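Morning F.,

Quick status update on the modeling queue. The single chain you submitted on Monday has been processed. Sequence for confirmation:
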Amino acid sequence: EYASTYTYANGTGKITYDGGRFHDSIKFSQKNVLVIDGLEYRKCLPVTGQRLNATYSYYLPNDPIINTLPNGQKPRIAFRQDGTFRDDGLFYSILKDFTKDEQFNSSGIGTYELKDYSIILTYDDGRVRQESFTVPASKSANNTDKILVGRLLMHLVK
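Structure tokens below.
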């Protein structure tokens, strides 16, 4: 939320943000584990070229609310090994881009690509969405029960 700068030397450092008003300490506690102000952040594994073969939702598995939502408004997306996807309404409300019209945020089908910690969704009607994409550090994209799309943690539903 703020532009930041950092310095790092001899195993410790400092992040400065909000025009210099705030400072957080940084250090590596072990390889690929960065500690910022006491919170651990782990390096993400690359996902470029990987494929998914599962359906994910914002809701936890077996949450009955998913079945009460109208078609086109379910925060669920299905990926197939062949590089295709079906968006049942993931971007309708939760990850909605309010700078775009309703058509841009509507459900649809298309192809996907995982590249440089991003997912690129190309809908059959020509829309293209790109969001950040990561998986837990110990998993690969084709073997995970959780994914992070943009700012949204999604759970395997089937």
